[in-house]
Amino acid sequence: YYNSCDLLMGISKQTVNINKLVLAEKAEDKIIKYVPHGINSKQFYKIEKDNELITEYENFKKTVFKGRTDIEFVVFFNSRNIRRKSPSDLIAGYRVFCDKIGKEAAKKCALVMHTAPVDQNGTDLNKVKEALCDPEYVNVFFSTTKINPIQMNGMYNLADVTMLISSNEGWGLSLTESMLAGTMTISNVTGGMQDQSRFVDENGEWYTPSADIPSNHRGTYKEHGEWNLPVFPDNISLAGSVPTPYIFDDRCSPEAVADRLEEVFNLPKEERDARGLKGREWAMSEEAGFTAKVMSDRIAEAIEETFETYVP
User: Fold this and answer.
1) Is 0.85 surpassed by the pTM of this model?
2) Are strands 7-10 and 31-34 parallel, antiparallel or unpaired?
3) % pLDDT > 70, the chain
4) Are residues 81 and 119 in contact, defined by beta-carbon separation less than 8 angstroms?
């Protein structure tokens, strides 16, 4: 498949590396570009107190928390309820976090999951919540209705941190949306999510996978962008199916998830906000370019280059 293409645009640095490894010497005859996901930065942004939407935002917050006004710390999950997204592990990790900080503090915290609680490709999260979470102090809210971009931006803004601990992930769009909304992230170190952590290699550069270090899931590099707290997997196993015989499955433990959550929780709110805004600044920078405009420009430039250099 790769060899039949003149231009390959990889959604992540890891994909670009895979393209090159699979093609081997044939990669020299291809145009291979890194074109990460781009998000509309005018739809996802930090809602300031003087914003004209602030009243609508406050009403939206009350709806999400079913009228409760005592919630002070919010963890947000926005993804499908499917096995590789690890939503059950996230609930388990949140429960461990609540036990670590104590019942009284946990009562003022909430995990908001924008997903279908029941999915045949995942599990019954209602049953997981019932089994693991004492309703007296472990608050888990499900957001099940489809919402527009304004409301989705509101979700990221009411959150103190967005979490995605998928066991394998091509990119992780909710992390990018969260960054542009100025909200901190916690992510498992796997696949394309590594790009958004901005790990730093031994040369002080943004880590790029290679044949020697195709993934940072073993923790080769520890330094990263301060807007993100990575969770390194505790178990790296080889999973697969008949159409996809092998893929590394990076699983992080609930305890490791809880430790990262506690780190964010212990930061002053001003510090969380400052780190989140640094994430937005980097996502919109020339280096990252995680915006719809830059993504479109990169695609156009790559196609133009292909037209200019193509030899029948």
Assistant:
1) yes
2) parallel
3) 100
4) yes
